[in-house]
Amino acid sequence: xLIAAGLLxxxxxxxxxxxxxxxxxxxxxxxxxxxxxxxxxGSSKAVHFLIQVLQADNEGSSCKYDALHTLYNLSTHPANIxxxxxxxxxxxxxxxxxxxxxxxGIMWTEKALAVLINLASSQAGRKEIVxxxxxxxxxxGVLDFGEPAEQDQAVSCLLILCSSDERCSQMVLxxxxxxxxxxxxxxxxxxxxxxxxxxxxxxxEQRQREPSPPPSKQQPQQVESDPGRQVTMESKTFHKSKSKxxxxxxxxxxxxxxxxxxxx
Length: 264
Known about the structure:
The protein is mostly helical. The protein has helices spanning about 5-15, 20-30, 35-40, 45-55, 60-75, 80-85, 90-95, 110-120, 125-130, 135-145, 150-165, 165-175, 180-185, 190-210, 225-264, and strands at about 100-105, 105. The protein has a domain at about 1-85. The protein has 15 helices and 2 strands. It has a two-stranded antiparallel ribbon. Strand 1 and strand 2 form a beta hairpin. Helix 4 (about 45-55) packs across helix 5 and helix 11 (about 150-165) crosses helix 12. Pfam families: ARM_PUB. Keywords: Ubl conjugation pathway. This is U-box domain-containing protein.
């Protein structure tokens, strides 16, 4: 009823006044809980406003969390994801991965990870996540130091990303996540253990599919000639040839001598 009454155009007018940001963010949060409103909000100026509030340093925690929660609700609608991605939502989520887990009772990291998981379910979202500098470092930090629920979400996000692209797996492995995953597979929650084991198994299977390097071809060994031996062989050949010539000369002499004696 509120949507039909033209509430969304009114909210778009209100976002031009910074003093109304907190009120507008709260209204968007309430409306984003309605399935019929998600697509309307997700394709409007509201997305840029919500990301702006999330990135602002001078906004209160309550206002920023309302914006984050609204973005999460919008990300549950697949048709909204391309516009969310193109609006720069991932860059606004990245800093929250390294923030304190809970501030003033607000679970920033857990909610930011929930949005990332929804974005990773689409090709556009996965592509943008991979292209975001430092995003895998942030996820690796959650695996190392996050709360159990946050670790579960980080593993789930990585599992979605790495299952779709082996290049993503290589980028994740460069962050040294194996020890953390092994620890979660042993000491994590039931969900965390199962996800960590699946991710470790995926890494192992992908590595086994890598082609083995071709065997190196051995070049035929070249036998180096011995100069001394060569000289000796040449000398022997020369003497042998000379001996043959000398023998033929003696034979001719004896023949001629015999012939002369016969004539006498």
